[in-house]
Amino acid sequence: MAGWIRRALTRRRPRRGSRDIPDKAEEVDERLVILVKFALGMTACLAAIEIANLVVLRAWNSEVFAAITGLIGTVSGIFIAQKT
């Protein structure tokens, strides 16, 4: 799972000069990859909790939805900030 996360967070900078030289890729901090994996895992767990709440209690839990929304915002913010 970390492979596609690492590729998504890797910033590529084109080298000036010859076209034969491949782009230079910056290394991604391992802590950032672990943070994104944790946030995605927690989003999946919270989504499962929300689905279970809907099935069992037939009610929407706004607190769980707010946590899911916050984590999705955090993950998308990390991807946007790392690429620019």
Q: What would you note in describing this structure?
A:
- The protein has 84 residues and is mainly alpha-helical.
- 69% of the residues lie in helices and 5% in strands.
- The chain is built from three helices and two strands; from the N terminus they run αββαα.
- The chain has helices spanning 2-9, 30-57, 62-83; strands spanning 12-13, 24-25.
- The chain has a two-stranded antiparallel sheet with strand order 1-2.
- The chain starts with a helix and ends with a helix.
Short description:
With 84 residues, this protein is mainly alpha-helical.
Instruction: Calculate the mean pLDDT score and round it.
Output: 85
Largest sheet: 2 strands, antiparallel
Q: What is the overall shape? A: elongated
Radius of gyration over all CA atoms, rounded: 18 Å
Count of structural domains: 1
Number of helices: 3
The strand count comes to 2
The residue ranges in which pLDDT falls below 50 over 5 or more consecutive positions are none
Cross-sheet strand order for the largest sheet: 1-2
Structural class: mainly alpha
Keywords:
two-stranded antiparallel sheet, single chain, 84 residues, elongated, 3 helices, mainly alpha, 5% strand
